[in-house]
Amino acid sequence: MRERTASSPDRRTRARDWGRHALLLLLLVSALLLLRRTGYLSDLRGRLSLPGGPAASGAAAETPLPRPFSALTPVAVTVRGAEGGGRYGAAYDAEETAAVFRRFSVDLGEALGSAGAPRDTDEAALHALLERSALTLHFACPMPLELLSGWLGVEMSSDAAADAPLWLCLSASETEALLGYRTQSGACRVCATAVNPESFRAHTAEYAPNGTLYAWESERLPDGGDALLLPGAPEAAALVSAVPLPRAAETDAIMAAMGMNSFVASSYTEADGTMVYVSDDNTLRLSPDGTVFFRRTVSPDTAADDEGLAAAVSRAWQAAERSLLPMAGDGEMRFAGALRVQAQRTVTIYLDYAADGIPVRLASGHAAEIVLRGETVVQARLQLRQFTRTDRAAQLLPYLQAAAIAAHAQGRAELIYADAGEATACMWVIADG
Amino acid sequence: MDSRKLERILIGILLLLNLFLLSAVLLDGIQDRRSRRETAQTLTALLEESGITADARALTPRACPTKYTLTRDLASEKRIVSKLIGSAEAFDRGGNIFSYVGTKGKAQLRGSGELDMLLDTGAAPVRGSAMRTAQRLLRRAGIGATPVEEGAAADAVSLCCTCDGCPVYNAVLSFDFVGGSVRMVSGTRLFDTAAAEDSTGLMDSVSVLVRFLGIVRDEGFICSRIESVTPGYLQTVARSGEAELAPVWRIVTDTGVLMIDAETGKTEGRLS
Q1: Mean pLDDT over residues A70-93, rounded?
Q2: In b/e form, how buried is each residue of A208-233, taking b as 16+ CB within 10 angstroms?
Q3: Nearest to A153 among B24, B94, B242 (CB)
Q4: What is this model's ipTM?
Q5: Residues A204 and A247 in one domain
Q6: Minimum CA–CA partner of B13 in chain A
Q7: B8: contact with A, CB 8 A cutoff
Q8: pLDDT band with cut points at 50, 70 and 90 for residue A70
Q9: Is residue A57 part of a domain?
Q10: Do A109 and B95 touch (CB under 8 A)?
Q11: Domain range spanning residue A180?
Q12: pTM higher than 0.95, yes or no?
């Protein structure tokens, strides 16, 4: 009996203890839930800058290389919705051509990525492609298809990747979609693709004709070849250019873009006013005429595999974006060419200025010539320019007249801003071919 | 100090804390309801000035959905496809076009998000209604979707993919039925990996109604009643395998449907 009565108080005590513990736990959980509901917890987290949320991770995310569409935007585009229908065209209009390029970027990427082996054909066959539902892109410089495909996010395995046409077209009938282009040497080529013709034709049908013709299909200039004849004359604003004087922050940005540490760089001025910055094995020279030379004396012995042309252009673009574009005013930048030197394991990327979709041609060469070895800029030549759009309109010949003059000279008409340092003029010029 | 005494003190403190937090939550709730009521009254007055009435639910303030960037993940894609057509083998056709051959059918998926799938007869038999069968299939594959049209035909239904429960209006999957089973699935799907983008400054439902009034005034859109205001998305594929989900507001009126971009305020599509 004594043992039984002695154990009852123990059991009651234990029960009370358990009850207290359970109540404590319940009140604690309830307080946390209510705290979360009121939002005080996230405020506190914010003030203490604690990581929160499901996406928190220890490693910082890698910033992807830039691939802006503007870098490869064509100078002119045409779209034909249906066989026998008219053609929509846009030229030297950054907004319109960029919009069409973006609209068809996925179709184009699919075409390039799935392109079969190119087969040689003739001009008549290429023209026949343009009679169907078709998209045509005209570039200011030969566009390596390897670069275009990489920029659009696809890998190109076809031999066509080695070609760099000035214009290319994607054309679809009811059953097939073909990629056609003319190489720099004048050869006409066609590749089969796996683009869905129905889907592509639906996209081309979105564009209403605006009277655009190719010279070969016009009655007024049948010998004009592939010259694009839009109605009327191009519209361009008069442009003023100047050589900007970089301030300290802009000079630091140029050095950083080339991979130099501006904090440890020493500098001196040469007799002609050129500022020279030296840091480790790097030398940067900034001339009064706006020319920047950069050289890395000891180049990295990069044994890394070639990342591809798209990666090289992205890196060069990144360097130019940080150095030239901030001072360019109303100017933009465009891809203008690439040169691989296998023996030196380098690739040189050329970039040019443009304004409102019209290429700017500098008297002293390209806006940027950036030599890369692997990921590193080993040499660069940059031309600083600042462009200002005015309210005055440039007086230009209509497309038809310009094409007729170019055809007479057995060339092709190109619209450019010619920049001679002190004066900038918008004009038609005659280029070869 | 006796541990029991300490526990009693802690219980007392936690009780007080709970009471304080509960009162804060209740107060927030009351203020929120009051704010919603005032907002609804203000919006009703604004709409009535333009001769428009609105369903009460359309005036309930709602936050804008988050903007996302979607990327294609081939491993996830293969898993999803395998759940629909059986254990699948992938074939790269180039241009980010992948064909899949499974034990119960075959499929082709593109970098644009387009999908074409052919299922073997009897691989996905109809159980219940056609719509329920389609929904079940997508649920099995982990794809959220909502019916596009109520009362769809017995041999063809369409569903809109969803993100965070909101419909993506141009990501529609259509199911065709033959002989009592799903035969074809085609349309546009959402890519596999989502990364949230900065969504500050996007219009909530109140701002979009004010913007709607601007459209009525400036662009001559005519209506007399707003039936609903619902959030959703439009998918834009800029590059093969990469897409943006842009939040939009779908305003259903008695004369048609208007979709307003939550970032730019532009109308995305108009049906009159």
Answers
A1: 90
A2: ebeebbbbbeeeebeebbbbbbbeeb
A3: B242
A4: 0.77
A5: no
A6: A27
A7: yes
A8: confident
A9: no
A10: yes
A11: 69-231
A12: no
